[in-house]
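Batch manifest, entry 17 of 40.
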Amino acid sequence: MAVAVEADLVQIGGLRGYGGDDQPDPDLLRACVHCGMCLPSCPTYRLTGQEMSSPRGRLWMMKAVGDGRLDLLDPAFDEQMYQCLNCRACEAVCPSGVHYGPLVEAARQQLETHRPRPLPQRVARRVGIAWLFRDARRMRAAVAALRFYQRSGLAAVVRRAGIPRRLGLADLEAMMPPVSRRALVPGEERWVPAHPERSVALFNTCMMGTVFADTNRAAARVLAHNGSAVDVPVGQQCCGALAVHAGMMDEARDLARTNIDAFEASGDDHVVVTAAGCGAALKEYGHLLKDDPAYAGRAERFSARVRDVSEELGAVGGGLVPPTRPVRRRVTYQEPCHLAHAQRITIQPRMLLAAIPGLELVEMRESSLCCGSAGIYNLIRRAMADELGDRKAGNALATGAETVVTANPGCAMQLRTSIRRAGGGADVRHVVDLLDEAYGGEAAGRAGSWACDRARTKSDAVPAAAD
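Output type: structure tokens
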């Protein structure tokens, strides 16, 4: 990403203002009436008690930069734009309907364009976000190495030697769950029920298609059980959410165009997502590409097709096929921010859990307060992320739940770490993992009792045995 010279900035009274593309929309900024209803919902305000660490405070700072009352490169402005978790909780309670997410993302883009980062940070962002997430094959290769590390015994040796602790990586190493035995590769698996009622296209996502690939397969089996033929279209890549949150809009737009191209072949089929953060990003492609004449309309049509898996299952005609196998377990549900706040999906996951025989759902306190994951926030702002994670783990464990249920991979990893740090023994599962278990899981599919004709590779001439 090119870095603009200082002369490109708008100078207002000696202060540097916004310049170039992706400026915070002044109309959106003016929509804020400073009522303060957002303050109690904001995790950083609740932790710090500081006005500038609230949505209202940050919106004031964004407007002040645009009006020439605050310098764009003021360290306080930089700090607040990145201290924000972009959890969107403020949007869900705002009476004026301020669309906060795109504003803070545009402010970050302005910072990344007009102030160069130190070389180590630029390299880390270029390799860790722009390069690794640009090609799903690279992500699969990286996760394959992690799988080898976990399953070869090397991880146990490294832990016994205390290496992660000495390097300050103990929490990061503990955050990673056991990696699925094999990645889900687009075009290589397909689920078809005996009597399909509809077709859907599964958005694989970076983490869900690799680390949590078995959860994506569970989602496909559950969808198939409920009458959907499930394809995983080839050509899809990362959704671009991490790039958007990092102020790397050009990289995010490139990924968005690639995904729109990949999914257009599936016509008007719903695009089903198992990661809340990815779903929120996909639903905002229309905004991301609004100024691209070749893709603006296509992006709006694509976004209109996107459904979270709980949203898709909650809208099945005739209702959800009742699961028959009891799952005797006490669980609590942790609401991912980008499901509850950005997508306003709160009822459907609970409805799915309530449909599982034998399952006891106990609500936790502050279930919709951010857990501190927030993309890579828990890697770059550990102190605040850990404080939020420990608060969430305490609330979850207070319910006596054996399992904490969520619907986003980042939340799952953050909760896993926080629960372990608190000394708890609860495991963390996705909603569809439990629903799949109640339908009989992979074994039921192999028995041909409900799931599909064999998941087929794109080179298969005939279907194989049931999956």
